[in-house]
Amino acid sequence: MANYDDDYDNNNDAPRRSGSVEQAKSKTQVPGIMLIILGVMTLIFSGIGLVQYPDFSKNMDEVVQKQTEQIEKNPQIPADQKKIQIDFFKKITDGAKDAQPFLLPLYLFSTFAGLMTILGGVKFRSLGSKGLVIFASLLSMTPFTSGCCCIGLPIGIWAIIALNNQVVRDGYAALARRANRRDEE
């Protein structure tokens, strides 16, 4: 039988080898770094959103005005098509302006999620705060809270899978035993 980290010698669910803290840390380094990178990306994107938020309506109006002028100047577009396109841009702008009250809480929550994801990644690399690592992993998988929702899901899943690896669980258990021994002394 192959010597995989999750192999068991008997039916008592006792691991063949306990797995050291160093082995556990080696398994958490890359997912931890990926959580940190994702958290930084989230902070950057939410920071950009927060900076642009006060001028959101003005910027939308400028974009629609420019698009309207381009459409009006184009002689190849028939008049009825011009009206349809201009109405379309105005509807998009109105929808975006209607969503504006929800953007500030979203940007603030994304900032919080980014900070927690960075902290969770740092703790994961050092085998600290298992609950924070799980929380950071779940936040990274949540749509609209990570810097890039396309990569947040696999990174969060990867972190949770790594957290459930037997060597990593043994590493957390070894650290807990060390902490209990220090408390008893």
- Distance between the first and last residues' Cα: 42 Å
Mean pLDDT: 84
Estimate the helix proportion, in percent.
over 70%
Beta content comes to under 5%
Major sheet = none
Number of strand elements: 0
Write down the secondary-structure element order: HHHHHH
C-alpha Rg (nearest Å): 25 Å
- What are the segments in which pLDDT stays under 50 over at least 5 consecutive residues? 1-18
Number of domains: 1
What's the number of helices?
Answer: 6
Which class of secondary structure composition applies to the elements? mainly alpha
Shape: elongated
Main attributes of the structure:
single chain; 185 residues; 0% strand; disordered N terminus
Give an overview in words.
This protein is mainly α and 185 residues long. It has one domain (21-184). 77% of the residues lie in helices and 0% in strands. It contains six helices and no strands. α3 (79-125) runs antiparallel to α4 and α4 packs antiparallel against α5. The longest helix is centred in the middle third of the chain and has 47 residues, at 79-125. It is elongated, with a radius of gyration of 25 Å. Mean pLDDT is 84; it is low at 1-18.
Chart the SSEs and their pairings.
Elements: H1 21-52, H2 56-73, H3 79-125, H4 130-141, H5 149-163, H6 166-184
Helix pairs in contact: 1-3, 1-5, 1-6, 2-3, 3-4, 4-5
Outline of the structure:
This protein has 185 residues and is mainly alpha-helical. The protein contains six helices and no strands.
